[in-house]
Amino acid sequence: YYNWLQMNVFPDWPAGIRVAKEAEDTAPFVDHILYAPILAWASYLAAHQAVFGGRHRLLLAGLALASVGNLVFSGGRAGQFVFLVLLVVLVFQRLARRPALAALVSAVLVAGVAVVSYTGNDYLRTRVDMAIAEATQHEEGFDTSTGRRIMFQINSARLFAENPLIGVGAGDYVAEYERINARHSPDWVTTTNPHNQYLFVLTTTGLLGGLVLLCVCFPSPLWRRCSLSRLRVALTVFIAVVCLFEDYLWRSNTSLLFVLFAVVFSRARRGLREGRT
Predict the structure, then answer these.
(1) pLDDT per residue over 86-109, tens digit each?
(2) How much of the chain exceeds pLDDT 90, in percent?
(3) pTM tops 0.90
(4) Four-residue CA torsion sign, 228, 244, 51, 53
(5) 268 pLDDT higher than 70
(6) Closest residue by Cα to residue 210 from 222, 197, 221
(7) Does residue 48 have a pLDDT over 60?
(8) How far is Cα 243 from Cα 94, in angstroms, rounded to an integer?
(9) Alpha carbon distance 216, 156 (integer Å)
(10) Tell me: the pLDDT tens digits for 180-199?
(11) 3-class secondary structure, 20
C-alpha cells in the first residue's frame, strides 16, 4: 500500500521497495508473478476465518478486503484468477448444503470482483486486454508474452509426445526445447521452462514424474475429514490451479509456501487427533 500511495497520491515519498521491473509493479521484493498468487492465498485465508471463525470476524473481514484490494492493483493475472477460483471454493464451503444458491452467489461475487478489478485498475485492464489480443493472434505473437507462452506449451507438448515414459531428463529441457523449437517454430525464441508446472514435469521426467507430481499436489492426508478439511481442500485447489500458469513448485517462494502449509495442516491434524489444540 505504501508503494501504491507513493505512485498515485504522494509522489514525493521515497520510491519504497517495488521491484525494478515495471513502473506499475507494486510487489515488494518479488514481482507480481510470485506476489499475486501468494496474496490470493492470504486473501482466501482471511476471508475463510471471517466466514467461519468465531472471534474478530469484522477485523478479519477488513483484512480480507484489504488483501483483495491489494491484489486488485498488483497487476498479477494468475493471482487474480486463482483468487476467483478460491472465492468459489469458499462460497461452496459455506453453502455446502445449498449448491444452487452457492452457484448463484459464486457467479455474482466472481463477476463483481472481476468487473471491479478490470474497471478500477488501468494497469490490470491493459494486461488483460493485451493477453486476450495476444492469445487470439498467437501465431503472429513472436514478441508477445502470451503468444510466446502458448508456443512454449505447444512445443513442450510435442516434446512430451516424443518422450512420454521417462521424459528428456531434468537437466536437458533447455537443449531439447531448442531442438524441437528449431524444427517446428524456428522464428520463435526458446525458453528454459514452459510456464506450466505439469508440462515441465511431464517433459523432463515423463509419466512417472507426472504421477509423482499428482501425489505432491493431491496428497491423500490433505483430504481426510476433520476441522481443517476446508483449508486443506483450498490449499490443494490453490496449487493445482496456479501451476497451470507457471512452474510454481520450481519457484522457491511459492513452493515453500505450499510445503509450509502442507506441513502445518498435517501436524495440526495429528494434534487434533491426539486431543491437542
Answers:
(1) 999 999 999 999 999 999 999 999
(2) 53
(3) no
(4) positive
(5) no
(6) 197
(7) yes
(8) 26
(9) 21
(10) 999 998 888 999 999 999 99
(11) coil
Rounded-to-10 torsion of CA 66, 256, 237, 19 = 40
Phi first, then psi: give them for residue 134, nearest 5 degrees: -70, -35
Helix (H, G, I), strand (E, B) or coil at 28: strand
Task: Please spell the DSSP secondary structure of 138-163, one letter per residue.
Answer: GGG-TT-HHHHHHHHHHHHHHHHHHS
CB atoms within 10 A of CB 173: 20
Contact 254, 242 (CB under 8 A): yes
How far apart are the C-alpha atoms of 154 and 158, rounded to whole Å? Answer: 6
Q: Which phi and psi angles does 137 have, rounded to 5°?
A: -125, 40
Phi and psi, residue 45, nearest 5°: -60, -45
Residue 199 CA to residue 206 CA, distance in Å, equals 9
Cβ atoms of residues 185 and 151 within 8 Å: yes
Answer yes or no: are the C-beta atoms of 229 and 217 closer than 8 Å.
no
